[in-house]
Design goal:
about 90 residues; 4 helices; single chain
Length: about 90
């Protein structure tokens, strides 16, 4: 979730969300992912911006977001995507 929030990998993290569905600390874990993304990468809004625009919301541009936050930008910002997840890039 940190990678999604920070914009390092803006593919939809469906499996990560499903893995914590019944975890009593779901909200705390997401809050921690937000905090780590903001501290380590400078933003916790890149994934939200990318998907809000894709879903038809009109989001204002922000100078603090990486290129992955915008439609047409890269989907993955580094080479740390696990090989098992590479098919979703095609």
């Amino acid at each position: 979730m940190v990678r999604f929030h920070s914009g390092q990998d803006v593919t939809m993290p469906v499996v990560a969300s499903m893995c914590v569905t019944y975890d009593p600390y779901d909200k705390e874990l997401d809050g921690m992912a937000d905090a780590v993304a903001k501290h380590a990468f400078g933003t916790n809004m890149a994934g939200a911006y990318r998907w809000a625009n894709a879903l038809g919301y009109n989001m204002p541009s922000s100078p603090n977001l990486p290129a992955s936050a915008y439609s047409g930008g890269p989907v993955v910002m580094d080479n740390n995507k696990p090989p098992a997840e590479h098919p979703e890039l095609f």
